[in-house]
Automatic annotation (TrEMBL):
<protein>
    <submittedName>
        <fullName>DUF5947 family protein</fullName>
    </submittedName>
</protein>
<dbReference type="InterPro" id="IPR045991">
    <property type="entry name" value="DUF5947"/>
</dbReference>
<dbReference type="Pfam" id="PF19372">
    <property type="entry name" value="DUF5947"/>
</dbReference>
Length: 212
């Protein structure tokens, strides 16, 4: 995960989108408000994209060269056996590389820590979730959380999200973490993040995920 992209996400979260003007990473045109992102696989970096440049990649799921358009869909999932995946501190996201290998990362005060997932473990843990078969390599992620306010809970969050959402979550944690356990501010920020996912999701399952 690129330090540059992460720092940009932290600046936007701290100052507000309107206070941090963006420019297209390809043509340098100014961008206002919501916009698309491109993943630069060569540098593992996220680039902001104006509408014209995003259109060049919109119909090319495989990308052009080392650039891939980041989709804009958020789907609440069910059926992933998160315990089998081993989710450190109750929060992690998983991406599939173009070669089929699976990489897991968990947000931390230092950024995102990465490790590889055994292919057999990934297949077994996700066998009960058909939607993951449509997850696009590199630019989408399985995001899971089994914590609320820093405590492990019975019900967990399982989402198919754009990879830039994961950058935003890492930025929330890196910006707000205090002490050994993160502090109330960081867990409030994590909860607000997942609340926002629910409000902007494309498909929501009917499972009751309220706290007992």
């Amino acid at each position: 995960m690129s330090t540059g992209a992460l720092e940009r996400a932290i600046r936007r979260a701290s100052a507000g989108d309107a206070a941090v003007p963006e420019r297209c990473g390809l043509c340098d045109a100014p961008i206002g408000g919501a916009h698309a992102h491109l993943l630069d696989e060569r540098d593992d970096d996220l680039l902001c994209a104006c509408r014209a440049c995003a259109l060049l990649f919109e119909r090319e799921a495989a990308g052009r060269g080392h650039y891939r358009l980041v989709p804009d869909r958020r789907i609440r999932l069910a059926g992933v056996r998160t315990a089998d995946l081993g989710v450190p501190v109750g929060l992690a996201f998983f991406t599939v590389r173009p070669d089929g290998t699976v990489v897991a990362r968990y947000p931390s005060p230092m950024g995102a820590t990465e490790w590889s997932v055994d292919p057999a473990v990934w297949t077994a843990a996700t066998a009960g979730c058909a939607e993951l078969g449509s997850m696009r390599p590199a630019v989408e992620a399985l995001l899971v959380s089994t914590v609320r306010n820093g405590r492990v809970r019975n019900a967990d969050e399982q989402w198919l999200v754009p990879i830039d959402d994961c950058y935003r979550l890492v930025a929330v944690i890196k910006r707000s973490w205090t002490g050994l356990s993160g502090g109330r501010r960081v867990w409030d920020g994590v909860q607000a993040f997942f609340t926002g996912l629910a409000e902007h999701s494309d498909v929501t399952d009917e499972t009751d995920r309220s706290e007992e």
